[in-house]
Amino acid sequence: MRTGPILRQTSSKPPRVGLFVTCLVDLFRPSVGFAAVKLLEDAGCIVEVPAAQSCCGRPSRGVADAADARAAAEATIRAFEDFDYVVAPSASCAETLMAYHADYFAGDEAWTKRAQAFCAKVHELVAFLVDVRGVSRVDARLHGSVTYQDACGGGLAPQPRRLLASVEGLALREMEGAATCCGLGAAGCVSLAGKAAAQRLPASVPPARACCSPAISVA
After folding, report:
1. What pLDDT digit, counting tens, does each position of 129-158 carry?
2. pTM score
3. For domain 2-129, which architecture applies?
């Protein structure tokens, strides 16, 4: 696969983007983080990765640990609130970050205002590139057929398909049940197994071990 510069919209002042790396990228797939930085820089952004960031709090929310979830939210807001945008290469993490003011700070006016300002700047990576930076195509080549599984969170569907369709030699084939949950994963399985994963997956399939994010399969 050959990759090159992304066509991007021009602006007089490059936006300063804080990259929310996510736990899985940090621990298992750091290459995704480096790729995200390149994509954002190619789209004309100044990218920084705050060292103080930690988990988005989704696992704590999944097991109803409100205190830990709020602590994670406060730490994340402090680390990122000075950036123009906060971008995460994960639909589920981005969705969690966008929900901070509603889920964690009810009744706390000061923190609610900080959280609302923070949430307004949060975007999933591909949605940010397409919807905010105006990216319409990628300079890439891959000869083969590809299918795409949607993430449950974030309402992310047309943007990845738009960029995939621009890849030279790629045939995008829709899979049956592309919007079906992958099994939710992480600690969310504990509280939602009966409502989500267990209802949508055969009993023989174990709970997923990773948060739900978009997936691409290549043939």
Report:
1. 999 999 999 888 999 999 888 887 656 789
2. 0.80
3. 3-Layer(aba) Sandwich (3.40)
